[in-house]
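Input set for joint prediction.
Command: fold jointly, output tokens.
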Amino acid sequence: MTLKFPTGFRGNGVHAGIKSDPGKPDVSLILSDREAVAVGVYTQNLVCAAPVTFDRALTPSESIRSVVINSGIANACTGSQGDDDVRQMAQWVAEACKLDERQTLVLSTGLIGSHLPMEKIKTGIDAAAANLSSDEAALDRTVRGMMTTDTVPKIRGREFQTGGIHYQVTGLAKGAAMIGPNMATMLAVVMTDAPIGLRAAQTALQETVAETFNCISVDGHTSTNDTVLLLANGAAGGQPTQGRTLEGRPLDAFRATLYEVCEDLAQSIPADGEGATHLVTVEIHGCRTRAEAVKVGKTIADSLLVKTAIAGADPNWGRIVSAAGYAGVPFNPQKVSLHINGMLVYERGAPVAFDAEEVSKSMAENRETSLLLILDEGSAAARFWTTDLTTEYVRLNAEYTT
Amino acid sequence: MTLKFPTGFRGNGVHAGIKSDPGKPDVSLILSDREAVAVGVYTQNLVCAAPVTFDRALTPSESIRSVVINSGIANACTGSQGDDDVRQMAQWVAEACKLDERQTLVLSTGLIGSHLPMEKIKTGIDAAAANLSSDEAALDRTVRGMMTTDTVPKIRGREFQTGGIHYQVTGLAKGAAMIGPNMATMLAVVMTDAPIGLRAAQTALQETVAETFNCISVDGHTSTNDTVLLLANGAAGGQPTQGRTLEGRPLDAFRATLYEVCEDLAQSIPADGEGATHLVTVEIHGCRTRAEAVKVGKTIADSLLVKTAIAGADPNWGRIVSAAGYAGVPFNPQKVSLHINGMLVYERGAPVAFDAEEVSKSMAENRETSLLLILDEGSAAARFWTTDLTTEYVRLNAEYTT
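tokens >
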């Protein structure tokens, strides 16, 4: 892992007064010193926030220079004033950084239904722009400005090499609840200094998100604001053979690195899930199609009974197998097998004698729980990450008010 | 409400030793003194229990005489021995009550994956058969033999009159968790002494279940054992004009009564939901189709964020509106309005000024919470009942082991 901004990117995060704690940044700014290819993948919620509508209209683009982010208030369900506010934010960034106003993307996360405190936002944007830096401390401030109930900043960075040039891919993410597949209050910005063409960037991001950020779940609640952005500014140099695209094997190297960064970031979200005591990996093998495998994985991952069983270190295979049964995917129950933490507990439709105490002990002692369900209907597979469900999650979410 | 067996039905519930508490019945038997029309609606879970497979094969039938029920062990995921065991149960009832072995339906509820203690079951069936009665105490024992984590017995009875004859419809149900739409560890037996033909009974039960038992949710987990049975023995007399069917208006009276009994029973399940402090009624109006209304209602009812907000008496309309947005039903977010406990909190896509303290107070002080979401896309509507989600639910389900 190489935790640094890719070449040509700088950033900053400042406290503008949206969050009550003065030690916590709530406005972040990322600036590329040259125009970047920018593509996005957005929430599938019909009720989407103003910044999502704004970014959707601007991307894909070959001329994005900056991303401004605020946390604390989501600017969702805010009507036409919300749309005005997001445009105003982009305008202020343009003024502060001498950009065209169509060169800034906007992300917001936090409470739904409140209007942004625009004076504070303006002060925050100006303060962030005045002190942009490419050092690691600035990267840390930038990601902290995105955080809400996250307990740890989520940054991942990796290098790849092609044509004698080292390229960097760095991703920042936030999210700890209202996380469901199809993205839910989850924001991520992935930056690279590799020269990636528009179409290649869009395809790579969509395919990667489908298998990473869209395969995580904390509570299954798809949020109004989810966004994953990819910015590629080509600042590290290199000769893309077609337009700005790295082709063939070099592009494969980029895609592999993007996948690793996104997979790590995606996992870090349920790993930091509100009140969670287990990160649960649900692997579904032997399906006819990947879509069916995802559907079964999501159903198990979202089952309250499965999640509470894992919180209680209970190898309750009945809840897992029965959750698969109502996923809406056809399979023969007589061929199903299940492993918990590597131990076979259910084989071809029937429970097997296993040491329940040993499995329970391994669940209690490890923060990671692995479920492997094999349907024996085909060769497609999928992986899904989720959390357990604890009394602490309920406490946090019963007390967090509008 | 008239809490009695319909004419010609008797029942009993005994403690056979499946449950550890000797004060709790765990084997129940219902006997009709003549052949009854019997129809069933069953779980849609692919992983279904042995008694579900058994009853599915026997119904619809015009010659059912009895229903035997055990609680404590679900006889689910038990392979071919499970099938043998359920046949054996029907056989023992036939011997004890002098019936044909194809005249008994079997219901089981409880732990998944354990085999039934058949000697205890045999003792229980014989003891129950030896002391069948039509009095109210026997009705109470019968329903208690179905209970698992239920805290209250669920019995509803109503009369209707047609052609000068009084008919009785009495329903028994159990269920407090693993409750999702499409039925989840939920058992119900509805008995009537009206002469209802096979096809009329099947249609009436299916249509009624779709709007009652299939519109409740505690945790969205569809169980392996869900079953609703309707037995009509015609013992109260009357001249069905076609076969054994009450036609036209008289049949309407039966259907209306069946609906009331099933609606009351269905509501009583989330009202008794594990750890629940609120019974939540989610009404969705202004949809294009009823199916879409149900889909939106179910999505809101199953949202952990909505359920925890209600537990915390938080009028968090953002979570409710955003849950509707990811239901997979197309609508215009700018036309959506929401009332919580009768108070308008969100109107045509934007929050309205409302007294949050007053709404919160009404949520805190009432055990029932009402959500009314209006999409303004059409004239179809649906109602859904669910519970809030409390730390107590998580505690119960993290501690209940295999």
